[in-house]
Amino acid sequence: MNAKIEIVRGDITEMTNEAIVNAANESLRHGGGVAGAISRKGGRAIQMESNEWVRTHGKVQTGSAAITSAGNLPSKYVIHAVGPVMGSGDEDTKLRSATISALNIALDHQIKSIAFPAISTGIYGYPIDRCARIMLSTVKDYLLEHDKLDRVTFCLFDQTGFDIFTQIWQDIQTQKK
Ligand code: AR6
For 54-99, how does the pLDDT look when each residue is reduced to its tens digit (9 = 90+)? Predict the structure, then answer.
């Protein structure tokens, strides 16, 4: 695997990766959580391009993703991935699919570095340890099959999330040795 996986604690709107991932809803209406922060800090362009995307393509189905510019943010693109609402059924498959969709869009745009938040673990109520297992193993497997990405960052907002992702990443690496 050529690419580096890193886990950081911070605010995803400040990340300098070429693309940051938004934990979006199907309508790309960026209200609260990560989406609200991205939309507020990035400026109006992100919501406007999102509206245009939905007008053209329809809603972004759960488990898939869309791309816009990043407005005034340091990154170049925002990839809007729609994770599962806890209790909607088949959540793990949907989270895996949202993660892969974001990575596929990154490759389509020749993006070399991408930063993910812990998708679905806020307003959508998905447990963070389960999210860490799914997202980390999905990204690891993806990077073993695709060599065009240089860096995938997981950006956790709080210390607990950071500690859980760090621990589970260690577990995953140990298991596979
Ligand atoms: N940087 C990094 N992580 C953050 C930030 C930030 N600035 N802000 C929050 N988090 P959420 P969801 C963490 O609720 O559960 C929105 O309204 C947060 O602590 O943003 O997928 C959308 O429009 C949590 O661990 O996303 C949708 O309607 C994680 O990011 C809905 O919420 C995800 O929390 C999506 O809900």
Answer: 999 999 999 999 999 999 999 999 999 999 999 999 999 999 999 9
Q: What is the mean pLDDT of the chain?
A: 97
Binding site membership of 165 for ligand 1 (Cβ less than 6 Å) = no
Query: What atom in ligand 1 is closest to the CA of residue 31?
Result: 17
Q: Give the domain range for residue 89.
A: 4-174
CATH number at residue 85: 3.40.220.10
Q: Give, for ligand 1, the residue of 34, 78, 114 to mutate: max count of ligand atoms closer than 8 Å to Cβ.
A: 34
177, pLDDT greater than 70: no
The total of structural domains in the chain comes to 1
Q: How confident is the model at residue 175 (pLDDT cuts 50, 70, 90)?
A: confident
Measure Cα distances from 164 to 83, 100, 132 in Å: 19, 21, 7
In this structure, the residue with its CA closest to atom 13 of ligand 1 is: 157
Asked if pLDDT for residue 36 goes beyond 70, the answer is yes
